[in-house]
Fold DUF1800 domain-containing protein.
Amino acid sequence: MADQNVPPRRPRDDRGWDGRQHHTSDSYGDPTASYGYDSPHPYQGGYAAQGDPREQYGDGYAHAGQPAPAPRGPQWVGPEGLGRPAPARPAGAGLPTLDDDDEPGRKVGRRKAIVALGGTAAVVAGGAALAMTPQFRSLFGDEAAAGDATGSAVTDGTLARPSGQQPSTVRTYTEQNESYMGSRAGEALKKNAPSGGRTFSGPAAAAAETKVTVKTVLAKDPILHLARRTTFGATPAVVSDIKKQGIDAWIRGQLDPDKIEPSKAELKLAELPTQTLSVQQLRDQRDKLNEQGAQPEREVVDATLARQIWSKRQLFEVMVDFWNDFLHVAADFDGGEVYRTSFDKDVVRKHALGSYPEMLVAANKHPALLIYLNQKDSRKDAINENLARENLELYSVGVDGGYKEGDVRQAAMLQTGRGVDDKGQYVLRVNQHYMGKVKILGFTHANTFSIKDVNNPTAKEIAAVDAAIDKYITYIALHPSTAKYVAQSLATRFVSDTPPKSLVDRLAKAYTSNNGMIKPVLMALFSSSEFWAAVGQKVRRPMEYLVATYRVLGVSPEASAKNDNGDNKRTPFARGLRQIHDKLRELGQYPMGQPTPDGYPDVYVAWTSAGTMVNGWNEAGEIIAGYRTSFTYTAPEKLVAKPPATAGAYVDALAQRLVHQKLTAREKNLILGVAGVSATTKVDATFNGAITAVARAILASPQHHLR
């Protein structure tokens, strides 16, 4: 695996106060399974135990190895422990399979040329060669790079979180993006980001009135900018649609995805047998599915990739990906094979362009989240605070949102009793719900109910307890700190790694005034000058790079005529999607792939890995050459309908086709060097046999890496 680029998991503890692990042996469909640290899955709800939780609260409990005192009120199952170190960085040296060796007599070697070209894309966003990372300087023989980590340093500052301290001062999960941007490379990026702006009457007006002043190699074309930011990769068809419909109409259409017809690939998702099955059907048919080689927790990723590449509902898919990082539940956890598809459909996709408070309420009642963060094991006499903490730290107000450790505990007490029944459905067990007044971040509730028999409550009594918990979840989802946190995250995704405070404040105001509805926030974002001024200020992450490559090359979901489907259990389409999925695992990013609940970071300096970038270039070469026959590819010599007869003009035409603009003179010369020709050299449609290498070099340019 070339590069995971993921932080180590957060220490968790699944043991009760008596130090015992609560679990059963059935880890497939039995929601009573704890999915703890002895599971065969390395990352899942619960995480590795890090010692006895009695030692970590400072409450006078016995140390490990000593007898425990008699229970005193609620017993705590806590997630304390050591903080995580900064993410490990790969060495990044070496250029595997990058055009093999340079040919004798070539003026500019292919390997050196493509690295020089791609190295420009590996700098701080803007493509202006502001600060090449140490990993890439090492490719050019820069010895100083070996000991210089300033280009990708992380100022995490993570420490253990002692009991009672303010979370924002002693962090476990930090604000990932903010932490990464504390590096020297992050500081350089801030200098090239738009600093402020205003809101206009609509997106088209904002685009027309905004002047782009940042340094960037991207064309300062508002239509291209919109296509790059609101889709997984601009294509000729998308650009044509925006020009035809106009900016405002196109955005309105994208914000109403139900009216957009499904693509051929989306109709072919029926070839993924698990994606239409209910939770109960997945449980009942697991033996049959295993025989077919169908893995639900992987097929939900496969289906997501298909939609990212081929769906016409591109803004919707971008927002699904956003929420999969913000309200993150990994696909690969024990229980994911049964519940993750339902979470995708019934929580994320149902609310992606709707109400975030409703999404958070739905998530907190979904078996996937309840299992992933061990809420199903939380009861009044053994309170697990995992979900309560992440609701505050990751899913709402954020680590700097003002909550304290006492708030986490109060929230955990309020949420006790929520779990999953033996049919795999959400249940609230009133007899396991803590009763008593709670106060969390200004939210107060008596949390006392008139229940005649807690072991046999009526539907009305259960609903009353459930409503109290929902009221709290809605409260934190609408908290001012949540408004700011969502606004900051959206601005980071759509505008720049260091979005202006002016924009974040306006988006937070839109979130609050619209009660957490997402469409008005997005319209405010697209109507801002900051959005239109930020051309070239985002670098594609590994998944975004590869998906954009499939899109721009016009790959079809239909199998090639050369395909020989030797695996009669799965269709070529299903197999092809799994190949993309597996490649993205190598690159370190795939949908729902982060093992820990914080989701993937969304800033450039978190992904500065030479190994990952070179692996992406090599994959682009595989796609251009059409080696994988599960899909149909446009032959590289046919990417340009009528290729010019000279090399220089051909490069211009191919760049226009692949990155929608001309390259700089330096980049053009480097690409000509890849083919070993001059601008005036006569070439045929195959670029005298070098068309694949030339196309791949263009896809290694900053114009394709930036979005």
In short: The beta strands are 76-77, 383-384, 418-420, 426-428, 438-440, 443-445. The CA atoms of residues 12 and 47 lie 5 Å apart. Residues 1-73, 78-102, 122-165, 168-174 have pLDDT under 50 and may be disordered. Residues 110-148+635-705 form one domain.
